[in-house]
């Protein structure tokens, strides 16, 4: 057996690898979020960064890093530091960045191999080769550095039987579920089209069986019960703020003796793992969950949960039958939502849909970003979701190449009209995307600009245009702030209109629309060229 340690910036992809490796007899520790420091934003379900003490104690044979572009350079630095402690450890990198930039990734001295594409069986074969002290130079999906040579192996076909590899949920509280793999979109700001184009061919967008997903929902149910205080669950269900009074340590500094506290905490947990109230309530929590409501919504994490309409409609019926009180969140695009889909989203427990709306300019949305979604489809989808009482979380981007100030205003106005809760971002041209290649070709960015981190405020706009992006996006972020009714100094100057009780978004959108319509009457559009 091989000892494997997995490190990721909170991506759950390695959890599928972990499940397969454990099934085949290997020892796996996962999922650390870095080495000595976090690779990305901390994520509660996963382990904190690996310490040097833990590294020396476990002494892994193989370490797998999952890295996207934003954390790739830092992950390489971590790998180099690990190599100074364990020179013989075999380090393999996978994830989005090595897949779309394999030549760059395999050139790093601290990386022994990279995985291009899906990693479950590539990692299994790698571990099997390491176990018998062979170099994995012929393993499909791997590019391998060995004795001064680089071996670039072809990719194996996409895994079609997704039910065969479940997520390893041991020792984590994670309410995210993937019902499939791949995406049907061709968005130019995403690297999925490149991954699909450079892949092995075959069916890229795949779904799991209904029963496999439903069984995982049951596993999440049980995980919540296992890892939660039943009292906590009950008071959430009942809407209470607290159940019983907590004990109070009255010491002036309870943590004054660090060594004492750490030992005491372990003994306290061992002797009192569950309160008396918890023990009394545990037998009835299942019934409460089944009859009332889910403690917190599940999250279906697919890039497009509704990508297969026929699959969704059948799944929604089965989900409702087996878990009638479950609630969940999902992601979709507006052109996937019609009256029947919206109805079954509601019936099956959906409480929020993240819609990739991107921009209020139809020209930018479809000609530049290739979303293939019309203004009418957005309006219809949002109306249908509102009618069902489903919250809309709109995903919007500012700072698009060629985006004008009027385009930004259209984005803001559309968001206000559709009544979404907004998730805002600045466009980040990632390697492996068409927008990245375009920006490099036009000299907007350097091909190596992503080194040192890609998530900056505004990349593609300079000077006054950059200030416009920042200004409109900031107003957008504050659009739901409401003016108090009792604030008497906020009436619009020169008008009888009263702004009290309105949101900032409503006020500004009204003024913007008025200005746009006025200019349109004079010269055919606010910028003379409607999009």
Task: Chart the SSEs and their pairings.
Elements: E1 3-8, H1 13-23, E2 27-32, H2 52-58, E3 62-66, H3 72-85, E4 90-94, H4 96-100, H5 102-106, E5 113-115, H6 120-131, E6 142-146, E7 149-152, E8 176-177, E9 180-181, H7 192-197, E10 206-207, H8 210-227, H9 230-237, H10 258-271, H11 276-291, E11 298-300, H12 309-322, E12 328-332, H13 339-347, E13 350-358, H14 362-368, H15 375-387, E14 391-398, H16 405-418, E15 421-426, H17 434-441, H18 463-477, H19 504-523
Parallel strand pairs: 1-2, 1-3, 3-4, 4-5, 8-11, 11-12, 12-13, 13-14, 14-15
Antiparallel strand pairs: 5-6, 6-7, 9-10
Helix pairs in contact: 1-6, 9-11, 12-13, 16-18, 16-19
Write out the strand line-up for the largest beta sheet, numbering strands in chain order: 2-1-3-4-5-6-7
User: What is the alpha-carbon Rg in Å?
Assistant: 26 Å
Could you say which overall geometry the principal axes of the C-alpha atoms support?
globular
DSSP helix fraction: 40-55%
Overall average residue pLDDT: 86
N-C termini distance: 60 Å
Number of helices: 19
Structural class: alpha/beta
What fraction strand?
5-15%
Total DSSP E strands: 15
Q: Give the CATH superfamily of the domain at 3-164.
A: Response regulator
Low-pLDDT residue intervals, each spanning 5 or more residues: 240-244, 523-531
General description of the model:
The protein is α/β, with parallel strands linked by helices and 531 residues long. It has a domain at 3-164: Rossmann fold, CATH 3.40.50.2300. The chain is built from 19 helices and 15 strands. The chain has a seven-stranded mixed β-sheet with strand order 2-1-3-4-5-6-7. Strands 8-11-12-13-14-15 form a six-stranded parallel β-sheet, covered by helices on one side. Strands 9-10 form a two-stranded antiparallel sheet. Helix 9 packs across helix 11 (276-291). The radius of gyration is 26 Å and the shape is globular. It starts with a strand and ends in an 8-residue tail after the last helix.
């Amino acid at each position: 057996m091989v000892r494997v340690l997995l490190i990721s910036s909170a991506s759950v992809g390695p959890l599928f690898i972990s499940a397969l490796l454990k099934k085949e007899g290997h020892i796996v520790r996962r999922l650390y979020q870095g080495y000595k420091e976090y690779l990305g934003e901390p994520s509660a379900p996963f382990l904190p960064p690996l310490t040097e003490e833990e590294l020396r104690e476990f002494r892994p044979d193989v370490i797998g890093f999952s890295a996207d572009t934003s954390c790739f350079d830092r992950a390489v630095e971590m790998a180099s530091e690990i190599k100074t402690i364990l020179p013989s450890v075999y380090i393999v990198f996978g994830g989005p960045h090595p897949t779309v930039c394999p030549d760059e990734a395999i050139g790093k001295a601290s990386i022994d191999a990279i995985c291009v594409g899906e990693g479950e069986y590539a990692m299994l074969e790698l571990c099997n080769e390491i176990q018998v002290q062979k170099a994995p130079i012929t393993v499909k999906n791997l590019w391998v550095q060995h004795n001064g040579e680089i071996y670039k192996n072809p990719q194996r076909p996409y895994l079609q039987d997704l039910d065969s590899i479940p997520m390893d949920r041991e020792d984590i509280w994670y309410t995210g579920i993937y019902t499939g793999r791949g995406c049907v979109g061709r968005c130019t700001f995403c690297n999925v089209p490149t991954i699909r184009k450079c892949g092995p061919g075959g069916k890229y967008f795949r779904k799991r069986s209904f029963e496999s997903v439903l069984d995982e929902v049951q596993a999440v149910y049980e995980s919540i019960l296992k890892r939660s205080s039943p009292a906590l669950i009950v008071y959430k269900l009942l809407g209470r703020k607290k159940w019983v009074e907590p004990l109070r340590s009255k010491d002036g500094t309870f943590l004054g003796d660090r060594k004492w506290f750490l030992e005491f905490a372990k003994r306290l947990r061992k002797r009192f793992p569950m309160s008396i109230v918890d023990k009394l309530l545990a037998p009835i929590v299942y019934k409460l969950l089944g009859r009332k409501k889910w403690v917190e919504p599940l999250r279906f994490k697919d890039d497009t949960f509704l990508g297969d309409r026929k699959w969704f409609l059948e799944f929604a019926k089965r989900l409702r039958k087996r878990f009638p009180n479950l609630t969940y969140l999902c992601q979709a695009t507006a052109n996937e939502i019609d009256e029947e889909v919206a109805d079954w989203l509601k019936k099956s427990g959906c409480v929020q849909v993240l819609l990739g709306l991107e921009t209020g300019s139809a020209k930018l949305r479809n000609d530049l970003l290739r979303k293939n979604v019309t203004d009418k489809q957005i309006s219809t989808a949002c109306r249908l979701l509102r009618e069902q009482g489903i919250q809309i979380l709109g995903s919007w981007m500012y700072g698009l190449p060629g985006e004008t100030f009027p385009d930004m205003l259209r984005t803001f106005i559309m968001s206000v009209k559709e009544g979404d809760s907004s998730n805002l971002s600045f466009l980040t041209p990632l390697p492996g995307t068409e927008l990245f290649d375009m920006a490099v070709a036009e000299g907007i960015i350097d091909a190596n600009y992503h080194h040192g981190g890609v998530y900056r405020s505004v990349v593609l706009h300079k000077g006054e245009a950059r200030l416009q992006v920042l200004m409109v996006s900031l107003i957008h972020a504050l659009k739901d702030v409401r003016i108090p009714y009792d604030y008497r100094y906020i009436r619009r100057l020169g008008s009888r209109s009263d702004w009290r009780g309105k949101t900032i978004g409503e006020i500004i959108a009204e003024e913007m629309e008025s200005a746009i319509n006025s200019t349109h009457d004079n010269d055919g559009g606010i910028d003379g060229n409607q999009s």
